[in-house]
Design brief:
With 167 residues, this protein is an alpha+beta fold. 22% of the residues lie in helices and 35% in strands. A hairpin with a 2-residue loop joins strand 2 and strand 3. The protein is globular.
């Protein structure tokens, strides 16, 4: 990844690129529990839930191309959990393994307190070693291990919830 890294709040017209990156991870059965591609239209509500001042959705860019995205999402949807956010990071295939996920996660950790978030969570499949290692390298600990809660093509998979306090 070149040093010409930038990120910004996602705009609605970025949604096709965001969805394309997301859909590109489905076939691996390593990153998302969706088993079929999602449509741009089906993600309108999700996009609108990401208010920049509370639950931002960022895109990274390199040479004018969206290379990845990071979202802060509500955890459990109840007011008492307002200080907790789930992080999701998805990268374009050409940008994987080049440090972009590390850059985005570092930015998210430093940004969280400015939006009232004191606890960050990552929901990661137990077989997704690269993502587990990334989060663990930033001090996230295993807060839950949910064995065999997902079935991907008939293979039962664990979900690991990693957490970190950032206040």
């Amino acid at each position: 990844m070149s040093e010409e890294f930038s990120y910004r709040i996602a705009r609605f017209d970025d949604l096709p690129a965001i969805v394309a990156i997301y859909n590109s991870t489905i076939a691996s059965r390593q990153v998302t529990a969706d088993t079929e591609p999602v449509s741009v239209e089906s993600r309108h509500g999700w996009f609108n839930d990401h208010a920049p001042q509370r639950r931002p959705l960022w895109v990274s860019e390199q040479d004018g191309k969206i290379t990845g995205w990071l979202s802060f999402s509500n955890f459990y949807g109840r007011p008492a959990y307002a200080g907790t956010a789930e992080l999701s990071i998805y990268l374009h295939a050409d940008a994987r393994g080049q440090g972009l996920g590390r850059r985005l996660l570092a930015l998210a950790i430093s940004h969280a307190p400015t939006i009232g978030v004191h606890t960050l969570l990552g929901f990661i499949f137990g077989h997704n070693t690269p993502s587990l290692k990334l989060f663990e390298s930033f001090g996230f600990g295993i807060w839950a291990n949910m064995p065999r809660v997902a079935s991907l093509d008939g293979v039962e998979r664990d979900l690991i919830i990693l957490g970190k306090r950032v206040d």
